[in-house]
From TrEMBL, chain A:
GO terms for biological process: peptide transport; transmembrane transport. It is a peripheral membrane protein. Gene3D superfamilies: P-loop containing nucleotide triphosphate hydrolases. Pfam families: ABC_tran, oligo_HPY. This is Peptide/nickel transport system ATP-binding protein. It comes from Humitalea rosea. Belongs to the ABC transporter superfamily. Keywords: ATP-binding, Cell membrane, Membrane, Nucleotide-binding, Transport.
From TrEMBL, chain B:
Keywords: Cell membrane, Membrane, Transmembrane, Transmembrane helix, Transport. This is Peptide/nickel transport system permease protein. It comes from Humitalea rosea. It comes from the Bacteria. The keyword Cytoplasm does not apply. Pfam families: BPD_transp_1, BPD_transp_1_N. The lineage of its organism: Bacteria, Pseudomonadati, Pseudomonadota, Alphaproteobacteria, Acetobacterales.
Amino acid sequence: MDMAQPEHVTAASTQPVLEVEDLRTVFLTDDGAVRAVDGVSFTVGPGETLGIVGESGSGKSVTALSLMRLLEEPARIIGGSVRFQGRDVLAMRPDELRGWRGDRAAMVFQDPMTGLNPVLRILRQVTEHMVSHGRQSPATARVRAVELLRRMGIAAPERAAASFPHQFSGGMRQRVMLAIGVANDPVLLIADEPTTALDVTIQAQILDLLRSLNEEFGTAIVLISHDLGVIGTVCRRVAVMYAGEIVEEAATEAVLTDPRHPYAWALVNAVPRLDSPAGARLTSIEGAPPNALDPPPGCRFAPRCPFKIARCDTDHPPLMEVAPGRRARCWVTADGRRLPAPPIPAQAAPRSAAPEERPLLEAEGLVKHFAVGRDGFFGASRIVHAVNGVDLRLRRGEALGIVGESGCGKSTLARLVTRLHEPTAGRIRFEGQDITHASPAEMRPLRPRMGMVFQDPYASLNPRMTVADALAEPLLAHRRAATRAEARERVLKLMATVGLKPEWASRFPHEFSGGQRQRISIARSLALQPDLVVADEPVSALDVNVQAQVLNLMLELRERLGLSYLFIAHDLAVVRAFCDRVAVMYLGRIVEQGPALDIFAQPLHPYTVALTSAVPEAGRERVILGGEPPSTLSLPTGCAFRGRCPVARPACEVPPPLAEIAPGRLVACHFPGSFSRPGHLS
Amino acid sequence: MLRYIATRLAAAVVMAVLASLVIFLISALVPGDPVLAQLGDIAASDPATVLEWRAKWGLDLPLWERYGIFLNGLAHGDLGISIATRRPVLEDIAQYAPATLELATVSFLLAIGVGIPLGIAAAVWRDSWVDSAARIVSLLGVSSPTFWLAFIMLAIFYGWLGWAPGPGRIDPIAFPPEGPTGLFLIDAALAGDWEGWHDAAAHLVLPAVVLAAATIGLITRTTRAAMLDSLGQDYVRVARAKGLRAQVIVLRHALPNALVPVVTLGGLAYANLLAGAVMTETVFSWPGLGRYTFRSAAALDFPAIIGITMVVSATYLLVNLAVDLSYAALDPRVRR
């Protein structure tokens, strides 16, 4: 079982690894059978890579679980067939299934933080199925486990094997999950959103690893993701799922450049790109996926389709060959025609916030440290250095983006400037008024002027309050409405502003979709007519199409109401689409700051270069940044980035100041611009 | 880890002393007077007798001085003299404690031995007949009043069926096993007296079941809930995707993660069984601490009550320490 010579290379390799035909999976609910997967067919050959893309609820994850027969009640496979190297998976007895799973076919799941058992050592979790499937003896399994961990890019694999999962970061855990997945040299690896929970530079590392597993060992890969860019970096072919069906299947490159199903078209065009024109609105389609209990008789996408013809409402289209090697489920493109490019959106007039005397928000030398317990009873208390000296100025009407990976301090910064946290050091001024150490009573009159939108629209709305009550609450609390009737009137106006129907006012949060809930959150943040809206990852929990809707809404509100935004996100393209200026944070400091378009067109700090090049977009040359950000418990000396920096030199032992090297462009690097990505897109 | 244990033990001593202070203050505040309880109405009507009696027991001293004397005694391993039995409290406790310790420990082992497997089975075969049976067992155990259950069990298994021996730790005409521990099962086994062992064991069955009933219910429900949570975790799905056998998934992957709340409950339950066997001990004429406590309280025998408090709080603190240490053993995230 040498790793260099996996056995399947010698196996009969003409037979497809996976043949799925007309797979149907339902969820049995009190209201009837919800058709989660409704007639899905595809084939994966030996060593092939297939991506499955779709928004949440499209059935892509259920498809993956169905393939492995890992579904749990109330889900049930009610039809179709799954053949693995000719064997009927759906007919396997429990013991056959057990012998096949984790051996010939393996699966890697989305969340590496919860996928590893917290009470078992890594070694055991990597070796147990090698031993239980009879592939290795306990002794050889141990050797192989360490070898696998090394191959997955884990430093000091022997020590890692003896550790417990909580001692690792998310990226490291996903490497362990991959080691577990490939431990028995599977013929097929199914990866369900393997990088969704990870930061962009770590995502790039894991995707690179997946690709190399496919190339080196010939493992066939089915990669499930909501992100076409992610699929594009690993998979040659992609199947686009909508409402339980595959609506388009083709080479990934073809779908990205020339989608033939209107839903794929919407998916491709809803995502902001780092090279899309400045200030453009995103293309979003209205509506929501159909009710899976009772899908429409015709094309399931017809109610939302911008291109629909008469036939679409009545006849359900089959998956038809629309061009050599590509299939789509669409009457419009059935004759081989292409879909038009999205309308060039009205380009917003370049916003030039006049340099005012007094910025709306100003911070100088902001520092926030958190004490987190002690090393033992008498030990020194440990300190998380969340924010380590940040200066920023936000002008009226401006949108400033803060980007960085998790743990870089961007959310803490948001909580500092809104004084949800009190800074350890530094100054904060809001309209010139020093609020650094303002008491809650002193902050109270200012609160209405700062709206906040949080990442999770599920968690930030009280499930027991109707929308009308949730929106009326701030109005009444701050005496902006004298009576309930007046508050209600204002609430209805607010709802109209963010595109919610007035008849929904008496609904509870769980009756809304994620995008609608985020609209409610935005409405709530706008209720008191704030000057500043601090949005912390407002769209990162949303599907791309909904993300486009919400971003467009926020852009529109900004123009209409003259809002200033502090916009915190990890998605660079989203920030670029939304913000005038961007600050890039690393380990609690701003390493680069400047106009959004300039920063992404020509990043000057090596970290910004790596960050922008790690974005999974087709045609983008990647710089895979090794390593992970150091711990915030003990900050490195000198430049915080030098440990990962490809161009670090001895001079970097002196911390570089954030210096203005061109008008409006600030970089904290001794050698700005000395590192640029290879195939730089012009 | 050693330092952690030492710190915890030191804290335990402080807690026990604080508990004794609280009891002392309560003893000064309660309206009852041990003089009246001990001497009876007639003797207590003679002021000279009362004064003499008070002086004899040191009750004429100020509270803080009595407390000082108590602490001094405590430091020398002396809990004072019981007003009711006129014997050293420590001796009394040493006499009654083994009976309770034996009963509580057997009950506890019964409770976890039945409750944990039943809870696991109920979670694994959720909504099956096993789950329903477990639900009924827990409901009956938790909701049956102890005295009622004790009488019913005695009436059925002793009075009617004659399967179980009557109240008491051992057959009244037999000699109790002699031995160093006072725990009959252990002493009899050490002496090789298997007839005596069998007798003691038979006498333990009914009180142990009665005492364990509520705890079985609690442990079953807690185990079931924790297992359901654990079985729904991603790592269990990963384990299934690895093709592991069901018993490995349940026992190796899900169970250790589910045990933390069960251990918390188990620790509390054990301490409760030790301290709270009054009802069961009374019905089964069990010569244990529960009955001793009851008698001492009725007699307003404060030295005995304080002595018992010290022993009970020490037990609680030790059990809690054991619980904390087992967290660290169960969950590496707790370890430093």
